[in-house]
Amino acid sequence: MFTQTPAGFLYYKECESLLLIDQGIALLPISAPVLGRMDTVYPVVLWDEHNAVLVDTGYPGQLSQLRDALESVGVPHDKITRILVTHQDIDHIGNLQAWMEGSQVPIEVASHALEKPYIEGERRLLKFTDEAIASIDRMPESVPEAFRNGLKRLMLHPPKAPVKRVVAGGERLPWCGGLVAIDTPGHTPGHISLYHEPSRTLLAGDALVVLDGRLQGPDPATTLDLEMAHASIARFASFPIERVVCYHGGLFRDNVMERLAQLGSA
Questions:
Q1: Rounded Cα distance, 9 and 3, in Å
Q2: How far is CA 95 from CA 16, 180, 196, 226, in A?
Q3: Domain ranges in the chain?
Q4: 3 or 95: which carries more pLDDT confidence?
Q5: Does domain 2-121+158-265 have CATH number 3.60.15.10?
Q6: By the 8 A CB rule, do 11 and 52 touch?
Q7: Is the C or the N end of the chain the one with fewer CB within 10 Å?
Q8: How many CA atoms lie within 13 A of 92 on its CB side?
Q9: How many CA atoms lie less than 13 Å away from 261 in the CB half-sphere?
Q10: At 95, phi and psi to the nearest 5?
Q11: How many H helices and E strands in the chain?
Q12: What does the pLDDT look like over 231-258, one tens digit per residue?
């Protein structure tokens, strides 16, 4: 599956996994029980002869799942040199700190400037409001006390890591054939999506979701500014997109530009 290059970097040569989107880009589905149901999220790994880049990191406590998913598509976890974070939510930064602490190689974490202080722990995550934290104490008595205490502790002290690179909308990142950052605020103020030029794949983060196999706009229940989030969809129109990966729902590739136009004009 791997071949040693003259430069010493193990690169992906062949993969039979259905998680492969195109050469050098793959889905990493990882699941966790959330409020009584299983929730699957879709980080993405991109790689070439020089770089292996992880986009988002899953819920806290999923580090081993994440590493196993990387191995399943042929990318050793110790080849990751960069982690791009689309935004601050806990299911996106959940394993960031653990990854950094366990890595034997330097990791460059990148995000939008507006998300940086939250990812670095200087500010409380926007969705971890006083009301959200207080609601833990109102959970039914059937919810174990240990779970409630753990959840409150997580909300007060979420994972954090230093952001070494600030990414702005329109910036082209020269990794893995080229990634273009797209400002897509609304879900959070500094949410970004990413366009992978070689595969014509949009990594939408939470700007879009796939629900029952259909591409949909942002989730109203988890989006801070729904009007702004819907307006952000129009920014995808200038890219020749053949596939969309949503963090919630995974891969969509059915008449993508037509569906994006519908969502952007809604």
A1: 8
A2: 27, 24, 23, 27
A3: 2-121+158-265
A4: 95
A5: yes
A6: no
A7: C
A8: 28
A9: 9
A10: -110, 10
A11: 8, 19
A12: 999 999 999 999 999 999 999 999 999 9
